[in-house]
Amino acid sequence: MNRHLSGMGWTAVAWAALAVVVLTGCGKKVSNCISGETPYEVAASLGLGWNLGNQLDAFRDGVAEETAWGNDSVTQELFDGLASAGFTTVRIPVTWKGHFGGAPDYAVEPAYMDRVAEVVGYAERAGLNVLVNVHHDGDWLDIKRAAADEKVNETVKAQLKAIWTQIAVRFRDKGNFLAFEAMNEIHDGGWGWGNNRKDSGRQYAVMNEWNQAFVDAVRATGGNNADRYLGVPAYVTNIDIAVESFVLPEDKADNRLMLAVHFYDPVDFALNATRSEWGHTGDPAKKASWGDEDNVRAQFGKMKSAFIDKGIPVYIGEMGCVHRSDARAEAFRLYYLEYVCKAAKDYGMAPFYWDNGGSGSGTEMSGLFDRVTGEWLNNGREVVEAMKRGIFTEDKSYTLQWVYENRAPVGMKDEQ
Questions:
Q1: Pick from 271, 266, 229, 261: which is nearest to 356 by CA?
Q2: Domains of the chain
Q3: Name one GO molecular function term (predicted).
Q4: DSSP string, 88-148
């Protein structure tokens, strides 16, 4: 990467313009092509992202199975609904275990590859960009063992290259609407608080080696993969660990790598629903003791300083917040999502909402769309509109500070 960013001077008008103009290397409008000369332009082409969660990444008894976690098989109607709702890019997490053979070829079952390709085709026909990855394959992507034994590490790299070579060959004629993401949240079981904290950086070094193996494997397949955009995750996709340890792989293509991180701060509000309020107007007794607006700005600012300002695109491959049945708690959810999306845009990153298909409320319930019909779940339309405001609003007066002052639910003191 040798492109540098001038700062956060991009206006909402510039983002909107990028949504309709033709950019180098695509031949189509940005809504169906990933492109850009700067990280801000790449983020604009990704726009607002959505995750097909708990679907092709689901598994049972060590074998990936699309409906194993309760979602029906997806249809074209779902992706048409996503496009109609205003999403730009879909991340399709894919678990491959149970569907490939042994060494040295690790041959992927044709029927399984065909289904992945079919789902990618749904998104392509809907006019969406796509990210495809290797997701819940941590049993063979065992970074703890690989860090402790170089023979294991070499075996893992060979397997990773073999799997990605097959995926890349299958899709090498697809246009630049399609990107690949090396892996998901790789860690040793401690979610960033395990042996990685005391192994003198060994796991981080292995992670960087795996990212390099992925890039090398994809580029070697030629075709459109020669300069396809590739997502490379930090260890456990953690922002702080990314700043500490991430090394951008060497690449034969110029400016075609993107760093992937995830953001669910604070977990007690965003994922677990044990806290019902968030932000500066929230009741201290009902919100987490950390993770308010200043944390969003601080974490995203770290990404900007460490990577975006140095010409390295960053996307938030997963973010989100679970549905609440209580109206006040849901209002805080909407504020959180709008604030996070607006902050992501201002700091130069595209956010991808994690939708797991859950139609209820509370912990792990983050569904927005019916997987068969593409119709709304719960108040999905309201949720998407909040996120779209954060990403696509053109009015120059719509600033992050304005969202802070005008979108936060009325606080306890304000009600008195």
A1: 271
A2: 12-409 (3.20.20.80)
A3: hydrolase activity
A4: -EEEE----TTSB--TTT-PBPHHHHHHHHHHHHHHHHTT-EEEEE--S-TTTS-HHHHHH
Does the active-site annotation cover 318? yes
Residue matched to tokens 């965003």? 270
Q: What is the pTM of this model?
A: 0.92
Of how many residues is the chain composed?
Answer: 416
Catalytic one among 185, 209, 277, 330?
185
If you average pLDDT over residues 145-166, what whole number do you get? Answer: 98
Q: Is the separation of the CB atoms in 261 and 300 below 8 Å?
A: no
Q: Chain centroid to CA 15: how far?
A: 20
Q: How far is 388 from 186, CA to CA, in rounded Å?
A: 30
Q: Is 185 a catalytic residue?
A: yes
Closest-CA residue to 289 (of 264, 262, 321, 266):
266
- Spatial neighbors of 24 by CB under 8 A, at least 6 apart, are 35, 37
Would you say 245 and 234 are in contact if contact means Cβ atoms under 8 Å apart? yes
Tell me the helices (H) and strands (E) count for the chain, helix number first.
14, 10
Q: Which listed residue (66, 124, 209, 318) is catalytic?
A: 318
% of the chain at pLDDT higher than 90: 90
SS3 190: coil
Nearest 5°: CA angle at 151, between 149 and 154? 115
Burial class (CB in 10 A: 0-12, 13-18, 19+), 79: buried
Instruction: Give the residue carrying structure tokens 């098989």.
Output: 73
Position 26 scores a pLDDT of: 58
List Cα–Cα distances, 36 to 19, 168, 198, 202, 397, in angstroms: 11, 22, 39, 34, 26
- Of the CA atoms within 13 Å of residue 375, those in its CB half-sphere come to 3
Tens of pLDDT, residue by residue over 353-391, are 999 999 999 999 999 999 999 999 999 999 999 999 999
Type of residue found at 202: R
For 254-310, write each residue's pLDDT tens digit. Answer: 999 999 999 999 999 999 999 999 999 999 999 999 999 999 999 999 999 999 999
Q: Using CA atoms, how far apart are residues 34 and 128, in angstroms rounded to an integer?
A: 10
What secondary structure does DSSP assign to 197-212, as a single string? GTSTTHHHHHHHHHHH
